[in-house]
Write a structure and sequence with these properties.
By secondary structure, the chain is of the alpha/beta class. It is built from nine helices and twelve strands. α5 links the parallel β5 and β6. Bound molecules: zinc ion.
């Protein structure tokens, strides 16, 4: 017993020394490792004092996927749409050529895809609603004006539904004259005009930036939950008060998920690549990035 105590004390002392060395030498691999372990301990402690609602839905006892209905649903992720002639960053995955976007939508239409709403996706994940085998959810992040100018007419032509995750502070009070060479954001007027095709949800009011340092890594500002609480209130004041959310940069933390759930968010999308299945964790759903180079048939596993 004495021997055990001695070893425990020695290892505790070693851990303290390791931590002290790490703190004194920030930026080294060792310090990052020590910091990460410390963060894990803090996250566990947070979970013990703040029991989180389980975001993994319990599927109904009689749940099964019927023939002809979707075993998994792809949630497509787009950002900025621009004609190829204006795309000066062809390797930027957040900028999609209009021509490729149009081709992708045409493919979905010709293949008879059903474009589900986020409410339908939520019901699907909970095992409460079956979706057609060929179902897809179309999402856009950030709220660019080009989503209205370029994507909206195409989506409308095909009778598609889609979602835009808006950054509240970037919504324009007045509609600006669209210039394809300049980055611009949707106005309130355009949001209203596009609401027959798009549903609008939160991508935070003003936390779409880095600024939270943890273990030598610069994370999204929403990691500071005090910021997040105030930000959620602002977004709700703006009238964007739905239970659906997309994490800026796809970055999430235990504390962030807790704060969102406490503020009645029920479903949140990441940028983690993959399909969505019934029973998946609602606050951590996968998406699929679509770029100009994406082969839609391959992405949707139709080949
Ligand atoms: Zn974003």
């Amino acid at each position: 017993m004495k021997r055990f105590k001695k070893y425990a004390l020695i290892s505790l002392a070693c851990m303290i020394i390791l931590y002290a060395v790490a703190v004194a030498n920030p930026g080294t691999v060792l310090s990052r490792k020590a910091c990460s372990s410390w963060s894990l301990v803090k996250d566990q402690a947070f979970l013990m004092t703040h029991p989180r609602q389980n975001d993994k839905p319990k599927l109904p006892a009689d749940f099964s996927i019927q023939p002809g209905s979707a075993e998994q649903v792809p949630v497509l992720m787009y950002h900025y749409i621009t004609p190829q002639a204006y795309n000066d960053q062809p390797n930027n995955n957040s900028i999609m050529n209009l021509e490729a976007f149009e081709e992708g939508m045409k493919y979905l239409y010709e293949q008879g895809y059903y474009t589900a709403t986020l409410e339908e996706l939520e019901q699907y994940v909970m095992g409460k609603k079956a979706l057609p085998a060929k179902s897809v959810v179309i999402t856009f992040d950030d709220g660019y004006q080009n989503n209205y100018v370029y994507a909206y007419p195409i989506l409308k032509k095909y009778g598609f539904n889609a979602t835009i995750f808006l950054i509240g502070s970037r919504i324009q009070p007045e509609t600006s004259v669209f210039d394809p060479a300049k980055k611009s954001y949707l106005s309130f007027e355009e949001i209203k005009a596009a609401s027959d095709v798009f549903e609008f949800h939160s991508h935070t009011y003003d936390l779409h930036q880095k600024g939270f340092m943890k273990c030598g890594v610069n994370y999204a500002s929403g990691f500071d939950t005090e910021n997040l609480e105030a930000d959620i209130a602002k977004m709700k004041e703006l009238g964007i008060d739905s239970p659906y959310f997309a994490y800026p940069f796809g970055e999430k933390s235990t504390q962030m998920v807790y704060a969102l759930q406490e503020n009645s968010y029920r479903m949140a999308l990441t940028v983690h690549q993959g399909f969505v299945k019934p029973g998946d964790p609602l606050m951590r759903l996968n998406r699929l990035t679509v770029t100009s180079a994406t082969n839609m048939a391959e992405l949707l596993q139709n080949e």
